[in-house]
Design brief:
This protein is of the alpha+beta class. Helix content is 31%, strand content 20%. It has a single domain, classed as DD-peptidase/beta-lactamase superfamily (Beta-lactamase), CATH 3.40.710. It contains eight helices and eleven strands. The longest helix has 20 residues. The two termini are 32 Å apart.
């Protein structure tokens, strides 16, 4: 009974997460509290999950439990654009450095998006500590904040991108390639299997866990204006029945809608990766 309830919760979770990644309307369902036994689910239990009953509108997907067991996989080794999921790597590189998190970072023309031509509420001259720029990049997927973090790296943005790729290699992300700190370049690519490794590494950073699961934050980037309020891009955080420990969304035309999460489902820690949940590669 415990295993059936666990698998039922997981099935519901994946379908809801896929709907969120695809930006589809959804009604969140609470997991059955009777499934919370506190005991880990074995690899044999996951084998009872019928993949044919999980019709996910994602080009690639991978779910792994805390013991490394693959719960669900679909094209998990396929290399695809990852959009703003890139910002998890940006954050790790920044946090690994000795740069001051209190140093003021000022937005300038070099930080604008000349690839996807997206807008930003951080206009030229907006100034925030590096800590808050990183928080906005992670929580609200603020592209200019991410670009400013790369630009102010010692040696500039090119050196920062080299540091991102070096970190990816150190994590064993075999097919991952990074081209910019914001994820605006479709040349930021990885497989779902690579991204599980990245999420697992990112989860060891308290700053990343907190920033990606904060629902909203207010900042004051201008001296003579009021505060700006930002919300989290992951709508699943609004449901109190979910225990999400880390999350990051992403979207580009070339990447479709993407979602990575580390969450507890029926008391079992899982890493969930969904890539291209809307677009020409969608099933």
């Amino acid at each position: 009974m415990k295993h059936r309830l666990m698998l039922c919760c997981l099935s519901t979770t994946l379908l809801i997460a896929a709907a969120v990644a695809a930006n589809a309307p959804l009604k969140l369902a609470k997991p059955d509290p009777g499934s919370r036994s506190g005991q880990p689910v074995s690899a044999d239990s996951w084998s009872k999950l019928n993949p044919k009953k999980l019709v996910l509108r994602s080009a690639a997907a991978l779910v792994v439990d805390s013991h490394g067991n693959v719960v669900y996989a679909k094209e998990s080794n396929k290399t695809l654009p990852i959009a703003s999921i890139t910002k998890l790597m940006t954050a790790m590189v920044i946090l690994d450095s000795s740069l001051s998190m209190d140093e003021p970072i000022k937005i300038n023309k070099q930080d604008r998006d000349l690839i996807q031509l997206t807008g930003s509420r951080l206009k030229y001259g907006a100034t925030l500590p590096r800590r808050q720029m990183l928080q906005l990049a992670l929580m609200a997927s603020e592209n200019r904040a991410a670009n400013a973090l790369g630009r102010t790296w010692p040696g500039g943005k090119k050196a920062f991108v080299r540091a991102m790729n070096k970190k990816a290699r150190a994590l064993g992300m075999q097919s991952a390639r990074f081209a910019d700190p914001a994820g605006l370049d479709p040349g930021n690519v990885a497989s779902a299997r690579d991204l599980v490794k990245m999420v697992q590494a990112a989860s060891s950073y308290p700053f990343i866990r907190k920033a990606t699961t904060t629902k909203s934050v207010s900042v004051r980037p201008y001296k003579r204006r009021g505060e700006l309020r930002y919300g989290n891009t992951n709508r699943l955080l609004k449901n109190k029945a979910w225990t999400i420990q880390l999350s990051k969304t992403g979207y580009l035309n070339e990447a479709g809608r993407c979602l990575t999460m580390q969450a507890r489902i029926a008391d079992e820690p899982l890493v969930i990766v969904l890539l291209n949940s809307f677009g020409k590669l969608t099933d």
